[in-house]
Description:
By secondary structure, this protein is α/β, with parallel strands linked by helices. About 30% of the residues lie in helices and about 25% in strands. It contains 7 helices and 13 strands. It has helices at about 1-20, 115-130, 160-165, 175-190, 215-225, 240-255, 265-280, and strands spanning about 55-65, 80, 90-95, 100-110, 140-145, 150-155, 200-205, 230-235, 260, 280-290, 300-305, 310-315, 315-320. The strands form 3 sheets. It has a 6-stranded mixed beta sheet, with helices on both faces. A hairpin with a 3-residue loop joins β5 and β6. α2 runs antiparallel to α3 (about 160-165) and α2 packs parallel to α7 (about 265-280). The longest helix has 20 residues, at about 1-20.
Amino acid sequence: MHTVVLLLIFCFTCLFSAAQAQPQAGNPPAQPQQQSGPGNAGQAPAATITRSVDVVNVVFTVTNDDGKFVRDLTWSQFRVLDNNKPPQEITSFEAQTNLPLRVGLLIDASNSIRERFKFEQQAATEFLQQTVKPEADRALVLAFDEQYELIQDFTNDIDKLSAGLHKISPGGSTALWDAIYYTCREKLMKEGTTNPVRRVIVLITDGNDTQSHVYRQEAIDMAQRAEVSIYTVSTSLGFTHGDGDHNLKLLADSTGGQAFFPAKLDDVADAFVHIQRELRSQYAISYKPENFLPNGQFHSISIKTVHGGYKVRAKKGYWARKQ
């Protein structure tokens, strides 16, 4: 009796193993996972080894000798270097004149800009009204003195953004680096989307910091990690403040933005108009770096046109991910 039972168990086990070895109807045998691509959508075979492929995204502006935007160039008219090496592959290139925007409008509400605050408030309101397209764009308003305060979180509602701007009143010292660091790390970097967007900070300040807990370079590094371009509008109005002017230019140059130094109040509005036009007149390129290593190191980026006469403005580099 025991022998019969054991024989039945042995036969059942053999049949079960044979069934497992054969593919069932409609389910082909698992194949090694291929590199992600349009033809492999939906494939998720089990027990495979995958390799992460890193793609670098860069949005940049091209101007001629007269400072006018150049919008009709093709990818073959550019030369890209990543750590002084050509990319392994250019994966995409577009003239992104209508790239959706994610804008952080940062307003210095410290005592140093009290006399000019209302005019700058109005100019910023007009900028948002002219720039934010409700069907595609989102913006936030953040004020900072000795602390930063999120006045209006991301929204496409222009009325809410304008109302937020008019809630701000100046007073206190200046925590500029803290405000940039927070906006990049906690807001712009986390503003998720499945499509390419343009992440931007528009910063209105004299460029002086007296109260931050993070350093200037930490704020710049975080902007680069979050792929944020910073456009600065000085509130000094023709007065020379060496450190402040230097800070504003460094912020812009390091992130692919631009620094504006209005000589009078009317020039503040002109600066906002220029920023608005530039944000709709840019290129976007994506590429795979040659011999990429996930070591957390900084990579320099250089983008130039094949023929001279054009100026390319882009971020100076990016931080590689860590393993």
